[in-house]
Structures are given as C-alpha cells and as structure tokens.
Amino acid sequence: MAATAAAVSAAEAERERLRARLHKQYRWLDYKWDLVFWITAAFVVGAAADITKLLFAGDWDFWTDWKDRQWWPIVSPFAFIIIPSALQYIQWLAWRFPTGATYTAVAMFLCSWVGRVFQWQGFVSYPLAFVWPATIIPAGIFLDWVLLKTKSFILTSILGGMVWAFVFWSSNYITLAPYLQPTQFMGHVMSVADVQGIQYLRSQTPEYLRLVENGTLRSFLDETQYVSLVFGATVAIAGYWIGQLIARYLAIWPIGRFIKRY
Amino acid sequence: MRHCLLLALLLATAALLGTALVASAHGEDSQEGFLRMETVAFSNVQFSTDTVKQGEMVTITGQATILDTFPRNLGDPGMGYINITAPGPVMLMKDRVINGAEAPDAIFVKKGNTYDFKMTLAGRLPGRWHVHPTFAVEGAGTLIGPGQWITVQDTGGFANNLNLLNGQTVNLETFGVEQLTIFQWLGFAIGLYWMLYWTWPRIGGANHRTVSKLPVTLSVPLNTDGQDIGLITKQDHRVSNWLLAATIALLAIGWIYQSVSFPIKIPQQVLRFQPPALAQPPQFSQTVAKGGSFDPQTSTLVMDVDVTNTGKSPMNVTGFTTSSLTFVSDGTAGTGSQHTMSVEPQGQIAPGETKTLKLTLRDPAWRDARIIDVNRPRIEVAGQLVFQDSSGTKNQDTILSSINPKLV
C-alpha cells in the first residue's frame, strides 16, 4: 500500500517537473525564435513537398486535361502524402503538434501558387485556368485531426491515409468541375479540359504521353472513379509510410546519433 | 589593383554577354543526324503568312512521311502526334486535319505511310516567334520540320472564346479562375488558422512554444497527447474539431456549388484513330543506293544510285528530301531554291531503262546543321529521291546509303 502511494507520489512529482519545464521561461529562445523557425522552415518544407509532388505526379498536377478520374486519384494522393507524413512525425515527436500535414500543405500551397502565377502564367504565358495546382490543405487538416484523435501513427496511416485520398479528390474536384463541361471542338465532343490541352501548345509533351482513362474491358460495374479512389487510398497508406521512413531514418535518427538525448 | 580587378571583371562580363547568341530555334540541330534523316521526312511545308494579328489565323500545310528506314533500335512506330513547336503557347491550335480527317489527339501511324497535314493556328502572344511543324513518334521523340518566323501583332486585347454545349460562351484565358481562387484561398485561410492556433500564442492562447516542449515531449510516450501535463489541452481538441467542421462545411458548400453550377460533366476524352490512307500515285520508279562519300571540308555529299524507270513514260529526278531540307535538281531548280543538287548524267530516264546517277549535294547544312556528323556511330545518309514523269505524276523512293567520309 505504502509502495503504491509512493509510486503515485513519484508519478505526480514527475508530472509536476514536466509541467514546470513546459512553462519555463527562456530569455532568448522564445516566441521570436519560434517565428523565425516556422517561417524559415516553411520555404524548405514547401519546396521539398513541391519537388516530391513534381517528381511523382508532375503532369497530373499541371494540366487540367491530365486530371482524370482514373489515374489522378491514384497517383496524386501517393505523391502528395509523403512529405506531410514526414513532417507529421517530426512535429508530433518534438512538440506534440498535430500540424505536420497542414504545415506542409500551407507551405506547398504558397510555393505552388507562386510557381504557377509567376513562372507558368507570367513567364511562360500558360493561363492559370489550365495550370492551376491542386490543393492538399483540406486533406492535411483531416490527416492532422486523425493523428490528434488517435495519437497513433499506425491508425493515422490507415484511417488518415484513406481519408487523405478521398478528401484530396473531393476538394479538387470542385475546382475541376467547370473544366469537365462538354463542348464541341474539331468535330468531336470533348471536355473543356481537352480543348485546353489541344489549344495551348505543349511542344515537348505529345498528346500520347497523357496518362488518362482510355477505357478498359474491366469495367468494374462502370465505376472507374470509385475503384480508383479505393486504390488511391491504398497507395496513400504506402506513401504515408515512405514519409515516416524518411522522417525516422533520414531526419531524426541521424540527429540522435550526434546530439545527446536530454 | 582593386580597380584593375573590377575593370577586368566588367570587361569579361561584357565580352561574355556581347558574344552570346540568342537562342531562337528549338534544338533541331542537336538531334542526331540519323534521327532526322531516317525517321520522318517533311515535304511541301507551307505557311500561309508570316504576320498575323492576335486572334487571326495562320495555316501550316505539308506532308510528313514515316520512312521505311525508321531505325530498328527505336522500335516500330505505332503512335504519332503532329503538332507545332514554338516558345510556349504563343499561338493556339484551332484546327488540325490529317489526311482529310479532324485529328485533335495523337494518331496511330505505320512505317511507310504519308500524312498530309493542315494545322490552323491563332496568334495569341504578341512577338516574333520561330514556329516549326513537328511529328512526335512514340519511342523516338519529337522530330522537327522546317520552321518559319511568325510575327504576332498586338491588338490591345485577346480572348479565346469557346462555345459550350449548354450554349454558354467562355473565355479559356480566364475561365474558372475566379471560383478556383476563392475556393482554394478559403481552404488556405482555414489551414493558416490551424497553423497559427498551434504556433502563435495570441491566437491559440495556449503554451505552444517549440523550445520548451522538446525536453518534455521526449520524456513522455509517443502515443500520448500529454493532457495531464498540459502538452495538448481540451481547448486544443475543441478548436481542432471546429476547424475540421469548417473544412467539412467548405467542402460541402463547394460540392453543392459545383453540382448546381455545372450539372453536366464528361470525363476527359481520348480521340486517337488511324487516319484514312492517302491515295497513292502509280509506282514508276525504283532506286537502289550504291554508296557515297562525304567531304567535311567542303560539306559535299556525293551519292551513286541505280534508278530504274518501270513506268510507261520518261521520268526525271527532280529533288531529294531529307530531314527538313529539300534539294532541287539544278535542272529544274527555280531562282528561289535554297538547296540544289547536280545530277549526272543529266537527261530523262526512258521507260524500262536503268541508269546509274551521280548526285552531288554541296551544301553547308550537312556540316553546320550536323546532319552528317563523322563523329557518330552511324555515318550514313537517308531520304527520299523525288521523280516526276511526263504527266507530272511524282514518285518518292526512300533510300539509305552508308557513306565514306574524307577524314584525311
């Protein structure tokens, strides 16, 4: 009995110690440091996420005529989730912030918009209506919320990864919708997105490189979209763990090798 | 000393900038010669004008043949795309007809087939642009045809209007940008608020510093939010729930908006097909390449070919087409011909007759455009020899010949 009481007391003492440390005032390393850190890191994180996205899903994110219902919901969630997952691990481990995915999404959003408006529209003259970037901010908020509630990376990878794919598609379908309206061009009925792809010259991207739904014998009850979303959710889970591996073994582990753990 | 260094630096910079050439073409000379000669031959390429106003049309017509000499190492050509190369979307593709059929997308192609193309483009961006027709072949890349400078004149404004099937007319330059900007930046506002709540005390009000948290978080298990010591509070959960609800509300409103505003939608279309075959003229010529030589010093190519007239009327050699070059026999060349070749012996080839002809093509393009490059694994020449009989009918025979370069 006395031993139990002592253990409880020790645990309470430890909590008090941690509480005191949590609220300890630092003279130099305070909110100004935080401000500098968050803003500086945003450029690095945004660029890392943008580059990863461009490497794995570049064309799908660039052109409206690539944002189809078969490949776009599969490739993009996988490509987009890698860096948010890595940041989620780092920020949860270090500060218990469920912010990694949203932070990455916000930083990448700004990077993408700067790139599309100034480079692609301003410098190369493609209309923003053709080269707008997809957003992952709603999906990032969902992913961070799932981590906050489950406090588990395994559950976040499964539930959050699946939600990520569905929210990615549903949030970007809203902006894609006007470009899927039918029109007649060159004697054929096609979507506005198709017309954009034909009219705005892409000299070194021949049309046959476009990886979009071509039709298939396996009709899946004519529900290509939903099959793609389910498969996209599955590969998003895989992408999530690639991000976790990057965070754990390329970011955190090397730091632990050289800095003494407190 | 410091001034001397500064002056030297300025002079060096000026020398570098002053001698730099303007990059105005599309890298066609960087493609290996065998690619340009043995894959696709462009002929009769014509531009309807060299100056248009914004929104005005220019038509590019011509023929492109996938040669029988298409290299085996590139695989069999199966899919192709006839398009334009230009410095970005300075012009708009308004119509593309291949062998008489509208061809918005890629086409199925076969070795030996000729594709008669007509592309109609609208001027979009004011400026002077170098424009080429191109033929991209899956597996081989994009082959570039003869180009021309086109000037697009500013009219003070430009709209790219498109009629939708619902009767609405939209300007593709700006269509949808307003609603996508509003929706995406509203999402950004929620995401930014989420970040500020968790990182900025005046908004969150909670203790969300990074520095003071690190030693604490490393002392508690990873799968806890540390509510008992104040790492994450109930208020944090509450605010996060509200922000998630705001996100869901934004998505719901967006979905209602898109389904009401754009009720009829179709997936992206893939319109690939095999264009109808062109009517072929009767074959009256046969050509066998016997070899050739090339002198890099004078950039002179000499080829020997055995030519047989299998037709019923006399025929002449009128030209040779390779890459984006068309050589005209000096016997038939007009005053404006850019590239000429001499044919020996001159004169007609009678029906049933076989003649050995010596073709001499002296032109700096062989060397300057790196079409015949002696520093490559394939020192050869390929192209189409053009014949014309007395009725005016033309035949084009594809030839491929290895050549002996004069190296010493």
Helix count from the secondary structure assignment of chain B: 7
> What letter string, H or E per element, gives the SSE order of chain B?
HHEEEEEEEEEEEEEHHHHEEEEEEHEE
> Span from first to last CA of chain B?
50 Å
Number of strands of chain B: 21
The largest chain-to-chain contact, stated as pair and per-chain residue counts, equals: A-B, 97 and 105 residues
What this model shows, in words?
- The complex is a heterodimer of chains A (262) and B (408).
- Chain A is mostly helical.
- Chain A is 71% helix and 3% strand.
- Chain A contains 9 helices and 2 strands; from the N terminus they run H-H-H-H-H-H-H-E-E-H-H.
- In chain A, a hairpin with a 2-residue loop joins strand 1 and strand 2.
- In chain A, helix 2 runs antiparallel to helix 3 and helix 3 crosses helix 4.
- The longest helix of chain A has 35 residues.
- Chain A is elongated and about 90 Å long.
- In chain A, 50% of the residues are buried.
- The mean pLDDT of chain A is 92.
- Chain B has 408 residues and is an alpha+beta fold.
- Chain B has 7 helices and 21 strands.
- In chain B, strands 14-15-19-18-17-16-20-21 form an 8-stranded mixed beta barrel. In chain B, strands 2, 4, 7, 9, 10 and 11 form a 6-stranded mixed beta sheet that branches. Chain B has a 5-stranded antiparallel beta sheet with strand order 1-3-8-5-6.
- In chain B, helix 3 packs antiparallel against helix 6.
- The longest helix of chain B has 28 residues.
- Chain B is elongated, with a radius of gyration of 32 Å.
- At the A-B interface, helix 1, helix 2, helix 3, helix 4 and helix 5 of A face strand 4, strand 5, helix 3, helix 5 and helix 6 of B.
Secondary structure blueprint with pairings:
The complex is a heterodimer of chains A (262) and B (408).
Chain A: H1 2-22, H2 31-62, H3 72-95, H4 100-123, H5 128-131, H6 137-150, H7 153-176, E1 182-185, E2 188-191, H8 192-199, H9 224-258
Antiparallel strand pairs in A: 1-2
Helix pairs in contact in A: 2-3, 2-4, 3-4, 3-7, 3-9, 4-6, 6-7, 7-9
Chain B: H1 2-19, H2 33-38, E1 40-47, E2 51-53, E3 57-66, E4 79-85, E5 91-98, E6 101-102, E7 107-108, E8 114-123, E9 127-137, E10 141-144, E11 148-153, E12 161-163, E13 169-171, H3 177-199, H4 201-204, H5 214-217, H6 234-261, E14 285-295, E15 300-309, E16 315-322, E17 325-329, E18 339-344, E19 354-362, H7 365-368, E20 380-389, E21 394-405
Parallel strand pairs in B: 2-11, 14-21, 17-18
Antiparallel strand pairs in B: 1-3, 3-8, 4-7, 4-9, 5-6, 5-8, 9-10, 9-11, 12-13, 14-15, 15-19, 16-17, 16-20, 18-19, 20-21
